[in-house]
């Protein structure tokens, strides 16, 4: 997560050491080619020869040796600013593959900023490599240097990447993309600074700004995901994990083996949070094409759903005395002592029979069996789509009864409990009374009273 964002594409061309070298060559070549006396003077022929060798050496390691020799022999030189530009450009070429050159690069960039505070390459070099040098325990002065440089990059980006400054061999879309890449580096540096200061809100804002500027950063999506997850912002964190787990395009993708682990983590975390894997595929699909969640993005949590369900049940209990009694019986029968409760308190008992002021239960008819001469009607009392009550008749219901007992309609009943099953839950009544419906068999009489 912490590896620096290395310049790519047009930005690499613009920020590379080679570009810096060519810029200095172009600056001095015309005057020398024309034989004109330069405004600056070499100390002697040897310094001129060193400068010439620097301009003609393409290998950055060899060029660095020449620069060090030049600096050692001629610490005070009219060409010190040009030499400093070469140092920053050359060390910038080496820093990616040689970690030992990163602190020297920062030192030289800081030196350059003393005389040229807005030098974009110097600012960018510090913003890019400062976090890699500082790691998890950066010195306060380095934090300050990186923060200042990152803000300098953001301030100078518009002018630096103005269309008038675009190299001829770079397209306008690539030039604009290079601007996005450079500002993303700056935002990532600010996120590193904020994280070091334990300012998670600022780090989150900086990572978000970085992904807005340059979406092609799977590693930054992973870093933001971890931050959001630790902050308990789980829907947003899950989206970023989905993004990091899938992004394999240009830019900075997480290595393939790590992406597989991130995908596994996403699937497990999503299921744990949502309560099921339902909808995970939609999040993954969205994250394929976007580095940040869309406006209004949300993932329902199992905890929130459970709380909502409890609140709905409580509201129903408070407003519906018949359901309250039914629910109480159900909770007792499905508990650990269900069989004992049934034997002692429910078997052969008529309910509700006026208990707690309730005369009848009410449920939605789910099935009538058999269709022509039914002797069994199942209802959903708790849930209109899930049967939990069976009305069993010893004689088939007459045709007149079927005018009122229809699938999908509400039906009230009162009767004697005959049996129950715990899973799936079902309470069976024998020859119950159905208000307003004449049944063939007389209602069964209770052998005991409900306690």
Can you describe what's shown?
The protein is α+β, with helices and mostly antiparallel strands and 451 residues long. The protein has 2 domains: 9-214; 320-433, Beta Barrel (OB fold (Dihydrolipoamide Acetyltransferase, E2P)). Helix content is 56%, strand content 9%. Helix 3 (45-56) runs antiparallel to helix 4 (60-73). The longest helix has 25 residues, at 172-196.
Short description:
This protein has 451 residues and is an alpha+beta fold. It has helices at residues 9-15, 17-33, 45-56, 60-73, 80-95, 102-115, 120-134, 140-160, 172-196, 200-213, 218-230, 234-246, 256-274, 280-289, 302-319, 321-334, 338-346; strands at residues 350-351, 361-369, 376-380, 389-392, 410-421, 426-433. Strand 5 and strand 6 form a beta hairpin.
């Amino acid at each position: 997560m912490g590896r620096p964002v290395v310049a790519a594409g047009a930005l690499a061309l613009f920020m590379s050491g080679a570009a810096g070298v060519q810029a200095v060559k172009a600056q001095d070549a015309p005057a020398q080619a024309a034989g004109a006396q330069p405004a600056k003077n070499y100390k002697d022929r040897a310094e001129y020869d060193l400068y010439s060798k620097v301009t003609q050496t393409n290998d950055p390691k060899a060029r660095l040796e020449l620069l060090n020799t030049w600096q050692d022999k001629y610490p005070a030189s009219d060409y010190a600013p040009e030499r400093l530009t070469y140092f920053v450009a050359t060390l910038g070429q080496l820093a990616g593959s040689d970690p030992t050159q990163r602190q020297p690069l920062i030192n030289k960039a800081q030196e350059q900023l003393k005389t040229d505070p807005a030098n974009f390459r110097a600012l960018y070099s510090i913003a890019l490599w400062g976090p890699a040098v500082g790691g998890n325990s950066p010195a306060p002065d380095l934090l300050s240097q990186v923060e200042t440089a990152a803000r300098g990059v953001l301030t100078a980006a518009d002018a630096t990447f103005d269309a008038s400054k675009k190299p001829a061999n770079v397209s306008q879309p690539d030039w604009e993309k290079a601007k996005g890449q450079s500002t993303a580096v700056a935002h990532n540096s600010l996120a590193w600074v904020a994280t070091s200061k334990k300012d998670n809100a600022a780090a989150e804002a900086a990572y978000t700004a970085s992904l807005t500027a340059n979406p092609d950063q799977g590693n930054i999506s992973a870093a933001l995901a971890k931050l959001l997850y630790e902050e308990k912002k789980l829907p947003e964190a899950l989206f970023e994990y989905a993004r990091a787990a899938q992004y394999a395009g240009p830019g900075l993708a997480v290595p393939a083996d790590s992406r597989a682990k991130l995908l596994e983590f996403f699937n497990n975390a999503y299921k744990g949070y949502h309560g099921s894997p339902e909808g995970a595929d939609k999040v993954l699909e969205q994250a394929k094409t976007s580095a940040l969640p869309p406006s209004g993005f949300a993932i329902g949590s199992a905890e929130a759903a459970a709380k909502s369900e409890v609140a709905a049940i409580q509201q129903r209990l408070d407003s519906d005395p018949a359901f309250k009694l039914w629910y109480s019986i159900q909770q007792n029968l499905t508990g650990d002592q269900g069989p004992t409760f049934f034997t002692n308190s429910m078997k052969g008992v008529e309910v509700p029979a006026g208990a707690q002021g309730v005369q009848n239960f009410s449920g939605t008819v789910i099935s009538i069996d058999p269709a022509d001469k039914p002797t069994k009607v199942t209802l959903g009392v708790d849930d209109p789509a899930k049967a939990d009550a069976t009305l069993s008749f010893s004689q088939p219901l007459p045709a007149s009864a079927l005018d009122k007992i229809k699938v999908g309609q509400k039906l009230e009943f009162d009767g004697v409990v005959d049996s129950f099953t715990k899973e799936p839950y079902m309470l069976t009544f024998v020859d119950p009374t159905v208000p307003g419906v004449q049944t063939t068999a007389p209602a069964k009489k209770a052998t005991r009273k409900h306690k």
